[in-house]
What does this fold into?
Amino acid sequence: MTIAIYTHADCLQHDTGPGHAERIDRLRAVLDALKTPPFSAQLSFIDAPLAQNADLLLAHDALYVQAIRAAAPAAGFVPLDPDTVMSPGSLNAALRAAGAGCAAVDAVMAGQYKTAFCAVRPPGHHATRDQAMGFCLFNNIAIAAFHALNNHHLERVAIVDFDVHHGNGTQDIIEPDKRVLYISTHQSPLFPGTGRTGENEKGHILNLPLPQGTDGETYREIFESAVMPALEQFAPQLLLVSAGFDAHRNDPLAGLQLVEDDYRWIGEQLLTVAEKYCKGRSISFLEGGYNLEFLGSSAVAYLSAFITP
It folds into this structure.
């Protein structure tokens, strides 16, 4: 089964400045790994389109979208918060990242592909309805979820977020809409400080905070006992995944202990859900992952689970 890889050279023009963790080389590392034979033979690379204003407004306030467009500099850097910065190439990169999700939804819903991966940056899951933060400008996965619901007449879309950081922006945006199930496994305490179990809503929001040092065996037990039953009960028609690889044991920004084989296992579990409830349809989005040596190999391990005979 061929996996569609939505990406664009514009995403390599989002310059965050020297020493920034969310740097251009992150995406280069992922693309280099994906383009390595024989794995590359299973992939179809597609240029991500620019998101339109109507797409962005599915998840963001109009004044916020205007503010992000206005903040784009002609030269130099503009800080939006202590961690999030824009440079001359940032706006188009963010529009490509959001557009990738919408295009992937359309292709998967049309039956052109069962599985898609949006290899894009900036990431998205910390961007709230009206605030850029945590390296994120637009919430790519939330935009895709509402694009699917509104344009493809779906009733239930599930988002699984296995980034080591809680996707506070995604939770914020989908919270009013019970058509979306949001599940997050994340280290706690850790940035952004959200994702506590007290924020959970049965059948709608499931946060599973994990202590520093959680290893793959424990993670798998929690995934099997909590994530999988929640997905089974919700029976989604489309599965979206915030695929952050910063829970890897060698990642510099956190302290969980996953390895490549754990990411392959996560992919295998999610594939069973997609096949059972979603006609195989799943779309994953690159979020975090800051050790370049292990980022590409983790992404390949995860996506390899979706390549079936």
Notes: Residues 59 and 124 are 11 Å apart (CA to CA). The longest helix spans residues 90-109.
